[in-house]
Amino acid sequence: MITSLSSTTSSPGSLAMGESRPQNLAEAASQFEAMFLRTLLSQMRSANTALNQDSLFNSKQQTMLRELYDDQLADHLAAQGSVGISRMILAQLGGQNKSAT
Q1: pLDDT at residue 18 in the model
Q2: In angstroms, how far is CA 50 from the centroid of its own chain?
Q3: What is the pLDDT of residues 1-49, one digit of tens each?
Q4: Per-residue b/e over 3-24, b at no fewer than 16 CB within 10 Å?
Q5: Rounded to the nearest 10 degrees, what angle do helices 85-93 and 22-51 cross at?
Q6: pLDDT higher at 67 or 11
Q7: pLDDT of amino acid 7
Q8: 58-67 b/e with 16+ CB inside 10 Å = b?
Q9: CA 22 to CA 70: how far, in whole Å?
């Protein structure tokens, strides 16, 4: 039996059938923004590392600490919503008709 996505039920299996809750969508949008920022920071660090190969601060330990810092920074920036990616995702997927500013 095929059910339409527009029908809303509050059964536990409804999420598996395509229903999304606003808090789940907001959390997924925030996680996507954090993942995007983490990738962005990683690519920026790799470009910087390529330019400074002979630096004293280019050890395995420093690289590991920078990666941990970048993960925390990405999570923090995504939680603040300062970049705005999660707001645009929510506006597009959440059914809001407001344009992102």
Answers
A1: 57
A2: 26
A3: 454 444 444 445 544 555 667 788 989 999 999 999 999 999 998 887 7
A4: eeeeeeeeeeeeeeeebeeeee
A5: 140
A6: 67
A7: 44
A8: eeeeeeeebe
A9: 28
- In single-letter form, the type of residue at position 64 comes to M
| Helices within the chain (DSSP H only) | 22-51, 60-80, 85-93
Tokens coding 50: 């390529």
Give the burial class of 81: count Cβ atoms within 10 A of its Cβ; 0-12 exposed, 13-18 middle, 19 or more buried. middle
Encoded tokens for 88:
């645009």
Cα 83 from Cα 14, distance rounded (Å):
32
Token pair for 19: 């229903």
Q: How many angstroms separate the CA atoms of 67 and 90, rounded?
A: 28
Enter the tokens of residue 35: 């993942």
Distance (Å, rounded) from C-alpha 87 to C-alpha 92? 9
